[in-house]
Amino acid sequence: MREEVKVIKLSGSLNSTTSQEFRQNITKILEVGVKTVLLDFQDVTFMDSSGLGALVLAFKTLRAADIQLVICSINEQVRILFELTNMDKIFEIFPTQEAFNQVLLSKN
Protein backbone atom coordinates (compact mmCIF):
# COMPACT_ATOMS: atom_id res chain seq x y z
CA MET A 1 0.00 0.00 0.00
CA ARG A 2 1.58 3.22 -1.07
CA GLU A 3 1.49 6.40 0.96
CA GLU A 4 -1.35 8.73 0.01
CA VAL A 5 0.31 12.15 0.21
CA LYS A 6 3.92 13.30 0.32
CA VAL A 7 4.36 16.88 1.48
CA ILE A 8 7.46 18.74 0.29
CA LYS A 9 8.15 22.01 2.09
CA LEU A 10 10.13 24.31 -0.13
CA SER A 11 11.92 27.36 1.24
CA GLY A 12 13.91 30.36 0.08
CA SER A 13 14.30 30.75 -3.68
CA LEU A 14 13.29 28.23 -6.31
CA ASN A 15 15.78 29.09 -9.05
CA SER A 16 18.47 27.50 -11.23
CA THR A 17 20.62 26.75 -8.16
CA THR A 18 17.90 25.06 -6.11
CA SER A 19 15.83 23.51 -8.91
CA GLN A 20 18.39 20.71 -9.37
CA GLU A 21 17.87 19.58 -5.77
CA PHE A 22 14.12 19.88 -6.27
CA ARG A 23 14.28 17.58 -9.32
CA GLN A 24 16.28 15.02 -7.30
CA ASN A 25 13.55 15.07 -4.62
CA ILE A 26 10.93 14.38 -7.30
CA THR A 27 12.98 11.44 -8.59
CA LYS A 28 13.12 9.99 -5.05
CA ILE A 29 9.34 10.31 -4.75
CA LEU A 30 8.90 8.24 -7.91
CA GLU A 31 10.91 5.47 -6.24
CA VAL A 32 8.83 5.60 -3.03
CA GLY A 33 5.47 5.80 -4.76
CA VAL A 34 2.67 8.05 -3.52
CA LYS A 35 -0.69 9.14 -4.95
CA THR A 36 -0.31 12.88 -4.45
CA VAL A 37 2.60 15.26 -3.95
CA LEU A 38 1.80 18.51 -2.13
CA LEU A 39 4.34 21.28 -2.61
CA ASP A 40 4.12 23.68 0.31
CA PHE A 41 5.35 27.09 -0.82
CA GLN A 42 4.79 28.82 2.52
CA ASP A 43 8.51 29.57 3.01
CA VAL A 44 9.34 30.26 -0.65
CA THR A 45 10.31 33.89 -1.04
CA PHE A 46 11.15 33.92 -4.75
CA MET A 47 10.75 31.79 -7.87
CA ASP A 48 12.17 32.49 -11.33
CA SER A 49 11.74 30.85 -14.73
CA SER A 50 14.17 28.05 -13.80
CA GLY A 51 12.03 27.22 -10.78
CA LEU A 52 8.91 27.33 -12.92
CA GLY A 53 10.58 25.05 -15.46
CA ALA A 54 11.47 22.59 -12.69
CA LEU A 55 7.84 22.63 -11.52
CA VAL A 56 6.53 21.93 -15.01
CA LEU A 57 9.03 19.10 -15.43
CA ALA A 58 8.01 17.67 -12.04
CA PHE A 59 4.33 17.94 -13.05
CA LYS A 60 4.95 16.02 -16.28
CA THR A 61 7.19 13.43 -14.62
CA LEU A 62 4.71 12.75 -11.81
CA ARG A 63 1.70 12.72 -14.12
CA ALA A 64 3.42 10.09 -16.28
CA ALA A 65 3.66 7.97 -13.11
CA ASP A 66 -0.02 8.67 -12.30
CA ILE A 67 0.86 10.89 -9.34
CA GLN A 68 -0.99 14.15 -8.77
CA LEU A 69 0.99 17.32 -8.05
CA VAL A 70 -0.72 20.07 -6.07
CA ILE A 71 0.58 23.30 -4.58
CA CYS A 72 -0.35 25.31 -1.50
CA SER A 73 0.53 28.53 0.30
CA ILE A 74 2.01 30.52 -2.58
CA ASN A 75 2.96 34.14 -1.97
CA GLU A 76 2.04 37.11 -4.13
CA GLN A 77 5.19 37.01 -6.30
CA VAL A 78 4.75 33.32 -7.10
CA ARG A 79 1.01 33.76 -7.71
CA ILE A 80 1.67 36.58 -10.19
CA LEU A 81 4.28 34.45 -11.99
CA PHE A 82 1.76 31.58 -12.20
CA GLU A 83 -0.94 33.91 -13.55
CA LEU A 84 1.36 35.57 -16.12
CA THR A 85 2.38 32.17 -17.48
CA ASN A 86 -1.12 30.64 -17.14
CA MET A 87 0.34 28.00 -14.82
CA ASP A 88 -2.50 28.72 -12.39
CA LYS A 89 -4.68 26.87 -14.95
CA ILE A 90 -2.33 23.86 -14.96
CA PHE A 91 -1.62 23.42 -11.26
CA GLU A 92 -4.20 22.88 -8.58
CA ILE A 93 -3.38 25.53 -5.98
CA PHE A 94 -4.73 25.59 -2.43
CA PRO A 95 -4.52 28.65 -0.16
CA THR A 96 -3.09 26.57 2.73
CA GLN A 97 -2.05 23.03 3.61
CA GLU A 98 -5.11 22.85 5.88
CA ALA A 99 -7.40 23.68 2.92
CA PHE A 100 -5.82 20.83 0.96
CA ASN A 101 -6.28 18.45 3.90
CA GLN A 102 -9.96 19.41 4.15
CA VAL A 103 -10.51 18.56 0.48
CA LEU A 104 -8.56 15.32 0.90
CA LEU A 105 -10.67 14.33 3.93
CA SER A 106 -13.90 15.10 2.09
CA LYS A 107 -12.87 12.73 -0.73
CA ASN A 108 -12.28 9.81 1.64
UniProtKB/TrEMBL annotation:
Annotated organism of origin: Nostoc paludosum FACHB-159
Family matches, as InterPro entries: Anti-sigma_ant (IPR003658), STAS_dom (IPR002645), STAS_dom_sf (IPR036513)
Name of this protein: Anti-sigma factor antagonist
PROSITE patterns noted in UniProt: STAS
Pfam families per record: STAS
Family, as annotated: Belongs to the anti-sigma-factor antagonist family.
CDD domains: STAS_anti-anti-sigma_factors
Domain STAS span(s) in chain numbering: 1-107
